[in-house]
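To fix ideas at the outset, we first show an illustrative case, written as a sequence plus integers encoding its fold:
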Amino acid sequence: MEIFLAFLRIIYVIIFFSAVFTYLKFEMREEGKDERGKSIANKSYGIVFPLIPFGWFLIFLYDEFINQFSYEAYKLAIWFLITGLIILHAIIISVLKRQY
């Protein structure tokens, strides 16, 4: 089971770094700087960034009323929140690039 969890962690980190690469590639190239690219980025930001306080609020509610997190578990939950939203941001950018 430990090998499987280590494998899943590696896969998640690979997905995270590919999402960061996708985001940075979009922002640094010309397609991210023209009117179409700014529209795509704004729509993606509009979807993803309101989820940060909502996710943090859900983590707080779970910690306060359901089960208390240890410090390490709380750090891991916040890490998954931030990295998950970055992955979602890159996915939304990729989808919107194909639609427009």
